[in-house]
Design brief:
By secondary structure, this protein is of the alpha+beta class. It is built from 7 helices and 5 strands. Helices cover 47% and strands 10% of the residues.
Amino acid sequence: MNDMLTLYYSPGACSLSPHIALREAELPFVLVRVDLAKKQTETGEDFRKVNPTGYVPCLQFADGRTLTEGPAIVQYIADQAPEKGLAPANGTWERYLLQQWLNFISTEIHKSYSPLFKPNTSQDHKNFARDLLTTRLEYVAHELANRPYLLGERFSVADIYLFVTLSWAQYVAIDLTQWPTLTQFLTRVGSRPAVQAALRTEGLVKS
C-alpha cells in the first residue's frame, strides 16, 4: 500500500479498535481527533464533510475515499498486512467465523451500550439494556472459557474490537470481575505493545 491512511478518532470510542489494528499491522497512518459533540476536527473543520454521519471511526485514503464502520475498517487493515495474521484469508471458513464475531460484537455488544451512555435514557430502559448486555457478555465469557482468543489460539481484529467494548463496562456499572475469563482476556490483549501504544496516544493510560 503506497498511500498514507488517516484515521479520524475520538479517545476511547470505538475508533480505538482500528487505531490498535493499524499499530498491530504496522501500517503508516496519521490520526485526526474529532469532537463528536461539535462534529469538528481538532483543526476546526466540519467533520461531516469527511463523514456525513458525523461519527467515528472513519478511515480516509490519500485520494479522498473513505471507509466507515469498524468491522469493515479493521478487515481492510488486516488484509493490507496478511503476514501479521490479524484476519484469516478471504474465502476460508475461519474468515467467516471472524465476520460472525465482528457482527456479534457490533450489533449485540457495542450497540447495547448506546442507551447506557445517553443521559436522557430512562432508568427502566437502562436496566433493560444492562440486563441484555450482561447476557451477551456471559455468552462471550463462556466462549472464551477454553481458548485465549475468539478464533482459538489466533489473535485477530475481532479480539481488538472485543477488547475495546469490554473496556467500556467500567463506565456503565458492569463489573467484569464476575467473569474471570473476560478480565483475563482484557489483561492478555491489553498487555500487547500495540494496544499500550494506542492507549497512551489517546491519553487513556499514563505514559
